[in-house]
Amino acid sequence: MMQQALQVLKNAKSFALLGASAEPGKYGHKVFQTLKDHYRVFPVNPKRTEIDGTPCFSSYGEVPEKPDAVILALAPQVTEAVVPTLVAQGAPLLWLPPECFTDAAVTRCTEAGVPVIYDICPVAAFATLQRQRAAFGT
After folding, report:
1. For residue 50, what are the contacts with CB-CB under 8 A and spacing of at least 6?
2. What is the model's pTM?
3. Smallest Cα–Cα separation from 122: which of 70, 61, 50?
4. Mean pLDDT score, 21-44
5. Cβ-proximal residues to 83 (8 Å cutoff; 6+ apart), any chain
6. What is the pLDDT of residues 115-129, one digit of tens each?
7. Which CATH number describes the domain made up of 2-136?
8. Spatial distance between the Cα atoms of 80 and 60, rounded to a whole number of angstroms
9. Are the CB atoms for 1 and 8 separated by under 8 Å?
10. 74-82: long-range contacts at Cβ-Cβ below 8 A with a sequence spacing of 24 or more?
């Protein structure tokens, strides 16, 4: 699964981040801060209009372009509830970090044929990718 995550990070140009946060202690903030300087990130949070100067969308359906992947930095029950909508809206790949998914959410993705990465932290995966790039000069 880590190899798949690294491949996504190597090839992706954009991510939608559900659960993006402006609060430094929140996981959604850490993911946003990690990715925003390297990818086009569409933060999604119905309670915000912007995060660190980046326009924030109230739902995935409002994101102006289809991202390469959707990261769900949400409580597991919320992830489980929104996965069917994301699948129906044609999300190309769902990334469900540790403590942000349920087995039912993963099953729903696989049954629908939507690629899913789960139980891998995008922040940790990005750090691994950066170490690999530094070691191999890529």
Report:
1. 56
2. 0.96
3. 70
4. 97
5. 72, 94, 105, 108, 109
6. 999 999 999 999 999
7. 3.40.50.720
8. 15
9. no
10. 74/18, 74/19, 74/100, 75/100, 76/100, 76/101, 76/102, 76/105, 77/102, 78/19, 79/105, 80/104, 80/105, 80/108, 82/18
